[in-house]
Amino acid sequence: MTSEIFAVSAAWSRSLIEFAEGLDPWMQTVTEFGTDLLLIAFAVLFLAAWWRARPLGSRTVGLALFAPVATVIAYLVSRTIKAFFEQMRPCQAMTDLSTIATCDPIGDWSFPSNHAAIAGAAAAAIIITWHRMALPAALLAVLEAFSRVLVGAHYPHDVTAGLIIGAVVATLLSLAMARPLTGLVDRLSGIGRLRPLLRAEGPDGPVAEAPAREPGNDARV
Predict the structure, then answer these.
(1) How does DSSP classify residue 130?
(2) Per the CB 3.0–4.6 Å rule, which of 154, 182, 220, 221 could disulfide with 113?
(3) How far apart are CA 127 and CA 64, in angstroms?
């Protein structure tokens, strides 16, 4: 990273932290808790994507169930990369400012943002299996990334890198695993107790599986 890019990113970070200092205390509290609660929204989307996928075929169900796994792997990748960049957080470097978030100790580095990586991965995994959620999922990921800068935990370049890393890792993993996941769901659907989790049930029994669609289109509603 060039010093020019870092300087611009640091200036933006300082401006946002100074803005956050002027917020009412209740708004600061909401922002502090919101930066973690936003990730819970992705967990809700994971559940909704799985439930909605059951009548849409094995591929869509498999991708929906794999979304949390892809997100965890993306987080681990981000955490591994972080170990190579010993970059101090804004709250550690800008000691003249008061940040909303409690500052992590030196050694808990800033680049890339793990929160942003989780958000980027979750959004990408959801979009792959549920195309109509593309805009809400993307906006949620960007909001999560922005909140990490606002509370003073990360620079803009930290969250940008985190979003990209998470989205790329989750997308590549999901596409690579699509075929194996389809076969696995087909096999597991033959187990009576698991079938309701993988196939939609109607009043007269399991709903017939939707016909196969072209890759990239079977996740649409």
Answers:
(1) -
(2) 154
(3) 10
Nearest to 58 by CA among 210, 191, 174: 210
Residue with tokens 């109607």: 202
Counting beta carbons within 10 angstroms of the beta carbon of residue 102, is it exposed (0 to 12), middle (13 to 18) or buried (19 or more)?
Answer: exposed
Return the higher-pLDDT residue of 167 and 104: 167
| 42-57 per-residue burial string, b: 16 or more CB within 10 A, e: under 16 | beebbeebbebbbbbb
Determine the Cα–Cα distance for residues 143 and 44; give it in Å rounded to an integer: 16
Element (H, E) at 205: strand 205-206
Q: Which amino acid is at 79?
A: R
Tell me the C-alpha distance between 69 and 59, whole Å.
Answer: 16
**What ranges do the domains of the chain cover?**
38-200
CA dist., res. 90 & res. 95, Å (int): 8
Contacts of 53 (CB under 8 A, 6+ apart): 60, 61, 63, 64, 129, 130, 219
